[in-house]
Amino acid sequence: MVDRLADDLVHGKGFSAAAKNICQAHTTKFMVDQLKYTSLVNSRRTSSGIFRSANLAKTPERFGSFDDSTKYGGAVPSEHYLRDVWRLYFSKLPVLEVDGVSWTLEEYQHRLMQRWDGEVLGGDASFKFAKIIRLGARAGEERSRPVYGLFTVFNEYEQVVWQRPMKTGALSELVEELKLFFMRFVRNGFKVPTLWNTDDCCDDRQLLQRVFREFEEATWISLYLEDEVDAGVQLELLP
Q1: Per-residue pLDDT tens digits for 43-67
Q2: Is-contact 235 194, C-beta < 8 A?
Q3: How close are the terminal C-alpha atoms of the chain, in Å?
């Protein structure tokens, strides 16, 4: 059930749609089994010779209803139950132990995501998909927007290295997050990126230069040298 739920969530169906899909699958299986039972009974009643059972009742036992606990015993998990199962499976149950510390699936996937690196990075802010993300609301109320954009960083293999939602749509709110992003390269012993592609707008270049300077002031680690210093630029910015 967890695997099916995960597949539904990956395709953006949500818990409500997942519950409906599971209900449909269970109902379909019940109907198929019921048809098989009816077909078998009719076949035995109309057969002759050694294939006919002398003990077959004139009125066969009913197949029973979907939720009959003494027969089919069907049950369909609710949306709330699926939420609880996913929360328990994803955020509560340990799936891995490292150096005596237990990791949940959520913690493991978070750390696994931090292992992606790259020498050529590209950052892009997207505001199109964020427009259709809305929070639930009561009838007659306007559904609010939780985020106004998504900033995604790709490496040279088109792998998603980093992604963060933007609450205001301004890249300046990601300054601290970007510092932590570059700290990942340092702490994991990755090679520092040598090239960063940005949009020629929205002051992306100036923002990154600010991040590099503040990062160096806080850690004494230089990611970028100003163009006029010399040719030893460590991370080049290309609009």
Answers
A1: 777 765 555 555 555 666 778 888 8
A2: yes
A3: 47
Structural domain that includes position 179:
116-238
Q: What does the pLDDT look like over 110-133, one tens digit per residue?
A: 777 667 778 888 888 888 877 777
Q: Are residues 128 and 232 in the same domain?
A: yes
Q: List, in sequence order, every residue forming a beta bridge with 160; answer none if it has no partner.
A: 154
For CA atoms 39, 41, 43, 46, give the dihedral sign: negative
* Spatial distance between the Cα atoms of 4 and 22, rounded to a whole number of angstroms: 9
Q: For the chain, what is the domain count?
A: 2
Distance (Å, whole) CA 16 – CA 24: 13
pLDDT, position 228: 42
- Residues 10, 171: Cα–Cα separation, whole Å: 27
| Boundary-marking domain end, from 66, 95, 124 | 95
Q: What are phi and psi of 236, to 5 degrees?
A: -95, 140
User: Whose CA is closest to 202, among 154, 159, 147, 149?
Assistant: 149
Within-domain flag for 110:
no
Residue 234 near residue 225, CB atoms below 8 Å? yes
Strand ranges, E, within the chain? 94-98, 101-104, 120-126, 149-154, 160-166, 195-197, 236-238
* Distance set, CA 92 to CA 30, 77, 78, 105 (Å): 33, 20, 20, 8
Neighbours of 143 (CB within 10 A): 11
Low-confidence ranges of the chain (pLDDT < 70): 1-2, 8-12, 47-60, 113-114, 137, 200, 202, 224-239
